[in-house]
Amino acid sequence: MSNNNLIKGSLQTIILKLLEEKDRMYGYEITQKVKELTAGEIKITEGALYPALHKMEAEGLLTTEIQQVDNRVRKYYSLTKSGKAEMSSKMNELHAFIDNLHRILNPAIDPKLNL
């Protein structure tokens, strides 16, 4: 995807949703899951991902667990109770935004406008 600004604005929502679905993930796993789900159209860089993860952890949205896997240390991220509530809020905001964007871009087919 060419517009990185759209990704930046959605990164927290993407992370929260993935962690809600999988319970816990490590950073590289998150990047690969996004790449897989979007057939390579969206690529999240480590330079964008890790600052977002650290900020969300500092805000109390994520908890971490360090685990040794094949001589490598992995830091797994999971949602806290606050993180689950924030994910729900972010998803509601996103759905409302998409609905409004649809109304703006396609007003002729919106039954609510009674055109």
Automatic annotation (TrEMBL):
Superkingdom assignment: Bacteria
One Pfam family per UniProt: PadR
InterPro entries: Metal_resp_DNA-bind_regulator, Tscrpt_reg_PadR_N, WH-like_DNA-bd_sf, WH_DNA-bd_sf
Every Transcription regulator PadR N-terminal domain range: 15-88
PANTHER family in UniProt: PADR-FAMILY TRANSCRIPTIONAL REGULATOR (PTHR33169), TRANSCRIPTIONAL REGULATOR RV3488 (PTHR33169:SF14)
The protein's name: PadR family transcriptional regulator
